[in-house]
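Comment thread on ticket #2218

A.B. wrote:
> Attaching the input chain for the structure job we discussed in standup.
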Amino acid sequence: MFSHLRNIETAFQQNKRIVALVIITSALIAIAAMYLAFRAYQKADAKVYVLANGKALEAMSADRRENIPVEARDHIKMFHHYFFTLDPDEKVIEGNIRKALYLADESASNQYNGLKEKSYYNNLISGNISQEIQVDSIQLNMNSYPYFFKCYAKEKLVRATSTIHKVLITKGYLRNVGRSDNNPHGFLIEKWETIINRDTTTSTP
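C.D. wrote:
> Ran it. Output below, let me know if you need it in another format.
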């Protein structure tokens, strides 16, 4: 009888050890699974997919502070592209200027209104002139806020009889604003001025 009880107690102890081992193993597996899932989430969260030409391209996300100079220069470049890339078409001009004015304050709007009053855009349309811009370099001071910049670019005015090449230098400041579809970088150009905008060469076809 005592032998039978000892066998039962031994079996009970073995069952306890097995149950404890199963519980510990299950807990370790659960912890490992949660850890791996968290790591996978972190890796997935660090991926950004950009839609370009109907294809999803993977890009790596980064801290906003690390990207400020890159985004700031691209903001300045895109503003100048929209403001100075013009064709002899009223809708094209209005569309590009509208995009540019989302990226800057009233200083850009004032320059646009000044050119409009001087019939600059009407002359482009009547003369069938296309205007292009190429940004050469952008100086950006990140040591003080708002961020001061100076933009160096070349303009080209193309007409049937000649092509005029111009040098363009502008300056202004950048301040942070909320991102939007119309302003994806989250900057606003302030106190924008044209320092130099003069002809350099004229060529004929």
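A.B. wrote:
> Thanks. Noting for the ticket: Residues 64-203 form a domain with the Nuclear Transport Factor 2; Chain: A, fold (CATH 3.10.450.230).
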